[in-house]
Design a protein that fits this description.
Sulfite Reductase Hemoprotein, domain 1, Sulfite Reductase Hemoprotein, domain 2, five-stranded antiparallel β-sheet, 3 domains, globular, binds iron/sulfur cluster
């Protein structure tokens, strides 16, 4: 793939993010949808410049990892040519919009998401993680996902809610985007070093951790499939693209394959009872600078031996899972501490277990 020059777009406007295994490039597809040609391009970029993997994040974004600084501009140029980048990093940062995945072209979810996307330039400066959720389908799906301003459907009405507020505001579709922008401006007027999220202004606790609302299955809109640890090898995705026209991304390590049913692949989780649906593991060593241990190979080896939920964390930060797991393994100085019925931050039951001895210590 050559690096075309994309008019009106400047690679220098995007700041590179460094991690233990090289640069990370985040891709925020419009409306959370990626078409076959874009998927093909992402596979090529990951194989040529990155670590050969495509990651799905808990903000329903895609990440390419393991890139070299020297290749950063070429990768961004090619993402722009695939229509996977905004004209500037600033605009891309503002387009932090979660959309429930079952929207149909022209329905209220699609109309609101498109209208908000078109009005991003009218938003004030907001903290990097500040985001929006458009959750106007038949069922609310995104209430456990991180967002600061939500618009939800309820009994045929639209309710706009500031995250953390006890009540919302009924709005018409015509009023909704103006109301969201007004609320964002109100937040910006009150934001500061200690106020980076809407919930803080309402003195609300962090969003309560909830089970994922979607599981692998066929649906009227296509097939929901899981990605182990939220990632897939580009080499495994490429051959599947003959059967996939587009995917919708979600925050739950699940993708909706539009108009697909009964697709099977060893790279995908296609049944809700697959052992890896119960397992979380962060990238660990050598991919994260903070990691004390390797995580995912161990998690795979343990998955089918553990009946409950398992979280393998490279350090006590516990990025991969905020809610408690039946067993949490926390990396520390090349060994693991074992927490039962808790999170990576909780008090361990055992400490200092070598990775090779973990199996024996979980019996
Ligand atoms: S939990 Fe620690 S090791 Fe794992 S990704 Fe987060 S910071 Fe890195």
């Amino acid at each position: 793939m050559t690096a075309p020059q994309v008019k009106g777009w400047c690679p220098g406007a995007y700041r590179p993010m460094m991690s233990g295994d090289g640069l990370i490039v985040r891709v925020r597809p419009k409306l959370g949808r990626v078409e076959r040609g874009q998927l093909h391009g992402l596979c090529q970029l990951s194989t040529k410049y990155g670590n050969g993997l495509i990651d799905l994040t808990n903000r329903a974004n895609i990440q390419l990892r393991g890139l070299k600084m020297a290749d950063h501009d070429a990768v961004l140029q090619q993402l722009a040519a695939l229509d996977l980048l905004d004209a500037s990093h600033d605009l891309e940062n503002r387009r932090n919009i979660l959309i429930q995945p079952f929207w149909q072209t022209g329905d209220v979810t699609h109309r609101l998401a498109t209208a908000l996307t078109d009005r991003l330039a009218g938003l004030p400066d907001l903290p990097a993680k500040f985001g929006f959720a458009i959750d106007t389908g038949h069922n609310r799906l995104l209430n456990g996902a991180s967002a600061d301003i939500r618009i939800e459907g309820m009994s045929g009405q639209l309710i706009m809610r500031a995250d953390g507020a006890q009540t919302g505001q009924i709005v018409s579709e015509e009023e909704a985007i103006d109301a969201m922008i007004t609320l964002a401006r109100w937040f910006a007027d009150h934001a500061g070093p200690d106020v980076r999220r809407m919930r803080t202004l309402f003195d609300a606790a962090p969003v309560a951790a909830q089970d994922d609302p979607l599981q692998p299955q066929n649906t009227p809109y296509g097939q929901l499939v899981g990605l182990p640890f939220g990632q897939i090898e580009a080499a495994a995705l490429e051959p599947l693209l003959d059967q996939i026209t587009a995917v919708r991304l979600t925050p739950w390590r699940i993708m909706l394959l539009e108009e697909v049913a009964d697709l099977t692949s060893e790279a995908l989780i296609t049944t809700p009872d697959h052992p890896l649906r119960r397992v979380d593991a962060c990238p660990g060593a050598p991919f994260c600078d903070s990691a004390h241990v390797e995580t995912r190979a161990l998690a795979r080896s343990l998955a089918s031996h553990i009946s409950g939920t398992l979280h393998v964390s490279g350090c006590a930060k516990g990025c991969a899972r905020a809610r408690p797991a039946d067993i949490t393994l926390v990396g520390r100085d090349g060994r693991f501490d074992i927490v039962r019925q808790g999170t990576a931050k909780d008090r361990p039951e055992r400490t200092g277990i070598l990775p090779a001895d973990i199996h024996a210590n979980l019996d």
